[in-house]
Amino acid sequence: MSRVIHGDIKRHVDAQGQVWFNGSDAAELLLRGFDLDRLHIKISSDVEQHNAWCVKKDKGDYIIRNVVEPSHDRLNTWKLAQFAELDVRKTVLSLCNTDVERKRVDLEMDLFEDRNMLPILKLMFRLVDHFRRNNIVWGVGRGSSVNSFVLYKIGIHKINPLMHGLDIFDFLRPLNNLHTL
Q1: Distance CA 150, CA 137 (A)
Q2: Is 13 or 159 the better-scoring residue by pLDDT?
Q3: 69: burial class by Cβ within 10 Å (0-12, 13-18, 19+)?
């Protein structure tokens, strides 16, 4: 599906809802002063020709830099590569100050690992990092997730469940009890 976004420039939306621009439209947007940092540009001969012209004419500010293959991995769009090797348990434990905190982190990490949720925790680290770097305000906490000390230490919420006596099992129920829900 294509829609006009600025004059004669079209955006293309794929089946997953990802917005793409072709090379010539991206070059035109760039020349009109648009910031392309958040756009997805399909790799094409148009982009290669445009970038070659920019290099030849010493116009480095007009080089299209964020070219990706249309079949890209959406996680890479979020630049999760730097978090791929993150040892979540070790990182969260390094944020602890007491033995009680460390014991709670170990318990919760076992629960998260049993549910194969480590990729989600890595994403949470990335989100909080993104929010902080871009001065984006997020909520203080909502629902049963505030029972998680790990999420508190990551920075997802501002409620210390140890201080308020909140039980992690109100958030992550034991796997053998899930059938009773």
Answers
A1: 20
A2: 159
A3: exposed
